[in-house]
Design a protein that fits this description.
Elements lengths: L8 E2 L21 E2 L12 E4 L5 E2 L12 E4 L6 E4 L2 E7 L5 E7 L8 E4 L3 E4 L4 E2 L6 E4 L5 E2 L4 E2 L6 E4 L5 E2 L10 E4 L3 H10 L3 E4 L1
């Protein structure tokens, strides 16, 4: 599918539920991709983010169960891809740089994945609907799991969290085979007391 050249924003829900959308040409005038823009595009295999994109909304690629990889133009100053996984890079005043994991393609090949060490947050819906992934290791340094960072995956069996994680919003829904392994901290205990619907095991 082709988006007209004058379009600069892929609006919220634009292609949501387009089950026959196998590919999309995102041209280099597009600056923003809205929330749920490609939600449940179940036949889309790959996606390329152009250099012009400055903002990608929540759950933009959630439920794309055939999506194997995401690539990003090397000229993009806000997003990058590594091994087909989408990340966000934010440059703050004063020179600080933070990196967040935006989206792990739900159809990516491979059963195990280790989140890179320098990732601060795992964003909303990042690991939703994964169909091949069995184990995720989050390394020390990651601080936050946003809402439904992990959800809707029958294949996911193990998520390992470090003690550095101190914000966990609602997560792990509809992952019937999942056990979460975490170091015992006050934040983990608080999460379990509020939303203790998942099996947590101390590392």
């Amino acid at each position: 599918s082709y988006i007209p050249g004058k379009v600069t924003t892929v609006e919220k829900n634009t292609f949501s539920g387009c089950v026959n959308l196998e590919s999309i040409d995102l041209h280099d005038k597009i600056e923003s991709i809205g929330d749920y823009a490609f939600l449940n595009c179940v036949t889309m295999k790959s996606l390329s983010i152009p250099s012009s994109v400055k903002k990608i909304g929540d759950y933009a690629f959630s439920g794309c169960t055939d999506l194997e990889s995401i690539s990003v133009s090397t000229d993009n100053k806000f997003y990058y891809a590594s091994d087909g996984v989408l990340f966000k890079e934010t440059h703050w005043a004063g020179g600080n740089v933070t990196k967040d994991l935006v989206s792990y393609p739900a159809g990516r090949k491979g059963e195990d994945y280790t989140v890179p060490k320098d990732i601060q947050k795992i964003l909303k819906g990042a690991f939703s609907s994964c169909k091949n992934l069995r184990s995720v290791t989050v390394q020390n340094g990651t601080e936050q799991l946003e809402t439904y960072a992990f959800c809707d995956s029958d294949s996911l069996e193990k998520v390992t969290l470090p003690s550095s994680v101190w914000i966990i919003e609602r997560n792990f829904d509809n992952c019937p085979n999942l056990t979460v392994y975490a170091e015992k901290t006050d934040k983990i205990e608080e999460y379990i007391s509020k939303l203790g619907e998942k099996d947590f095991k101390k590392r």
